Amino acid sequence: MNKLLTALTVAALSLPLSAAAATYTLTASDTDQSWMSNPGNFEIGRFSLQSDIVDIISLNSSVTLIDQGWGGENPDNGVSVRLFAGETQIYSLHVAGANHEWKTELYSLTSNPGDFAGLNAALDNAQWGAGVTVRMYTNAWGYPGWELHTRNVSLDLTSGVIAAVPEPATYAMLLGGLTVLGAAARRRRERKLP
Known about the structure:
By secondary structure, the protein is an alpha+beta fold.
């Protein structure tokens, strides 16, 4: 009986921690945009999310880039990650800004709580019928002389279920149930003794 109680306790305590997770990875060697040939948004790549995804747990990117524009750096001249339902953009993250020197920029969703909450709220409200995708873009302004170059682009996303923290009452009910089971086992054992 003790083994049964131990097994039930371990199972009950591990339930909130079990969750299926999916990992997605996107890489690109380089992109080159100029104001004359391909200004505006340029899609580096995308992946489709599984329809049973509840939360985006982590999103990390690394981009080496240079902005060869004149007149100063513009934060819109850079790299973004966007969430789409069908062809409708429902959320956007600016993950790398523009620099006049080659520079590697890292972005972590867990270090940006506002983006973390906003992205998961958008995912909660997404219309899954048309499919949900995550897309990565560069954006070079269409002004004369502006260019944007990227190298070694990577995006990693992990999805799954963020385990809810049980209320104290849940643990109290679990403890009460285990107490009743223990008392019943003890009574049964006492009855068997002469």
